[in-house]
Fold these 2 entries.
Entry 1:
Amino acid sequence: MDLSTLPYVLSFLLVMIGVYCVLSNRDLIKIIFGLSISGCGVNLLFVQLGYVRGASAPVPPLGATVVDPLLQAFVLTAIVIEFGLTMFMLSLAMRVFNATGDTDTRALRRLQG
Amino acid sequence: MIALPLMIVIPLTGGLVSLLTGSSRRALLCLLAGVGCSMGASSLFILRETWKGEVLIHRIGNWQVGLGLGLISDAMGSLVMLIILSLALLALVFSIDEARGRALSKLHSAVYFLVAGMNGVAMATDLFNLFVFMELSAISTCVLVAFLGGSEEIEASIKYVILSTLSGLFFLVGIVMIYDRVGSLNLGAIGMFLRQQGADAALEFAMLMVLIGIGMTSAIFPLHTWVPDAYWSAPTAVSALLSGASGKVGIYAMIRILHQSVGLESFRAAALLPWLGLATALFGSILALCQTDIKRLLAYTTISSNGFSVVLLSMQSMVGFQSLVLSIMNHATAKALLFMSAGCLVHSFSRREFGKMKGAWTLMPGICIAFVVGSVADIGGPSLGFLSKVYLFLGLIETNSIALVVLAVAILITAAAYLRVIQSMISSEPAFISPADLPILMKVPTSILTLGCIALGMAGWAILGASKTVAAQMMDRLVAITAMLGI
């Protein structure tokens, strides 16, 4: 097996595990975990696309080949955004816990789309 | 052009400053006036420059093309930003009395951030930049939806935040795959690449992902479920802003990505788009008819009108774009007006079911007239909406007669939904509760929007002429691509 496809497979797996987590769980905290796992999968995809084997870091003095710095800038931004969203979701989950004493989404069925 | 980044920087600063004011009404009004004047000036300046047919470009930090980020604005973009600004100002004034006693400065701060995000989406030339601004507006929307703090509001906010995080992740996957193929995320470069090489399987998949991400923000059919809950839960002033501006920004981003950059003919998933639009229009109107809650009804009609916009966008013809320009202007004013008059009714009756608002016509005729003006404009009665509907049918009559019939049915059902509300307003049964007095700061924005709606209708033919120039500029893909490349 070609080892170079391994990171793709890994990040695909991570995204799928996260999505499965979101769809199959009824607990808010676990749903938030699922979203974070998916986010990690996507971030991993970013990082490994920019990676070039044997290349140096994109700081002077530059080597013959450097890894793609643009993708690393992207991934930093994406991580910060995910962090903000996760914090916000956790604070909402805390509000739900304070109101119902539980983080079960089945308690949240009052709005019908 | 320095005016372009100002449209993002000013509301961001306003958002930070309003957190410092500590809910003093006078300080918030002063801030509002300051932000309004400075943004209004730069927005009008952008409009004046783009009206000459130019596309304004700003390269952030003067980075070379392909490395740095850019902002552009054409005539349509500046129109969208003007709509965002005016609706946001009216909504902020409206919210001062609506959300009395709550942490008003936080509400205002979130609205300012939302405005910054939406303006960013309207100007971004880079897919990643667009994603960042989309997330900025999504987070501020979540905060606004949860603002009233009851358990229903929290539930709506949770639904929205989970859906938007997931679709944001899909969008990111699409972005990564496009970057892998094209080697750039500049929308102009992507457009050039796709036109020369066409889309392979990976790019097809990536475009589908992008479509999911952007379809969430503009509430396209399978991804519309968050809208009724969110609009129902948010303070009405915010629902007016979300309905009038946020959906339109999503549609404008779709035009930017799917028409101006990628081109609908270059990937296969685009063939789904008109049908999704039709389904959105029809489902939205049918579900609106089933509602008993006035804000929920308006939310469903918003979904329906977004469906109309998607059908128009997928026509990719001059007539279609002209109708799109007209309908965006019309819907923005009409929907905001409807939500604000509904907010006034909800405020004075302290009920949300319109069945309980009997006798409203005799008690508060002004607000009811505002509601009627809004609904007539929205369904395309004698107003700007009429012209946009005429052009819609002119465009469809030759190309897609099924769509024509479906949309006509959707309009009729929407009209029936509005009639149900108006019927219970005029029914003479005495009200059980005497309505509370409306504060002046809620009346003023509603009357301004009513007058604006009527004025747009009166100036319809003049606007029709202007819409031709705007649509022609929007249609011209080559100009858009060179502008996005920053050349």
Entry 2:
Amino acid sequence: MPDEPFPFDEHLDSRLRAAMHVAAPDVSVSGVLTDVERRARRRQLRVRESIAAGVVVLLGALGVAGYTLTAEPHLAANGPAIRSKPAPATTSTVPVGSPYAQSSGLSAGTDSNRPAPNPPPCPAQQATPSTASGRFCGPDPGPGNGSGPDGTCTGSETAPPCGPGVTPGQYYTYTMPGTCSGLVTFDGKQWVSELPPPSPTADFFVWMRLDPTGSAGWISPSGTVGLAPYAGQTLSGCHQ
Amino acid sequence: MIERTVPVGVDEDQLARFVEADYGALVAALSLVCGDPGAAEDAVQEALARALVTMRRGTTIDSLAAWVRVVALNLLRNRWRSLGRERRATRRLGDLTRPEAEGDADELMDLQAAVAELSQRQREAVALYYRLGLSVAETSRAMRVSDGTVKTLLSRARATLAQVLEPAEDDDA
């Protein structure tokens, strides 16, 4: 019942409440719980698949970029200089400091010297970003259009992708803040990363997408991560 | 049969209690908002699944009911937008609702038809406030807007709906 002083007409309100009292569906508690459990398992599976895809992308790209995994507790780079942020380029590169590499379970140097799996090559001239083949293909993401540093969203933007109006299924360049909260503004709402970075990192660029089912996520040469609507839950923070 | 494994720390009873006490009312309220009981139930179940996953990751959800309300409403909003169904759902709303309360059935149906003509946000405010019986503060948290916005939405919705009720009020006089 309302507990604030609100200038409503009690008679009218009671009639409105009666009219609004649409019958609740008959509920089988065990049936609903079973359905919810099934959905939760599907969702957890999707997250694992996303993580696995991110690992495959990383390993594949490491091979392309000339990095080799060694038994030493660090990545030995035979390739180009390590960058902390992907630069706009036409070829996929892996930022070794990828904020999600550790979260994805890819601990540098913990694997053997086995060669990395080799996903199929990207189609030439692919205009749309995708990870469907097991590796990131398409143009590298650039900075977002937010009014914060590096194009980060501040929450005051009125245009997508920071502000509302994002078209489901479309990819947007987006600057992902490397903060431990995993909290981001997208489509005028707040979302929380299902895989926060292992430690605070520099902002980085991704392709952000709103899924038609209502979830969201980003892909980039450094991985694939889902986002859940933020509903005031306690944030998990960085994972070490 | 689905095997159910709930790690330590996840309060399974909390979910069962929610389904028992709040699930039906929330589905009914969201049905009022979107005009599609199936979509409403789907949104609530998906929100519950996300809550379960969240809890299994060790995150504490202080108020499951409030959490699920916010997430389910977000899911519904995104679904409408992606499918472009809002207008069609709005038109169907009057046919889908079944009042429990006794009284003038014609008036109730007129009123529900009038609800269907409200804006999406007004319908959300009306459904949460009148159907779920939330306070203004709880409604504003569920909609993620300010209390003032909720009051404005409710006032405007109420003014529209009052026009449907006014002839009956005159009759009573």
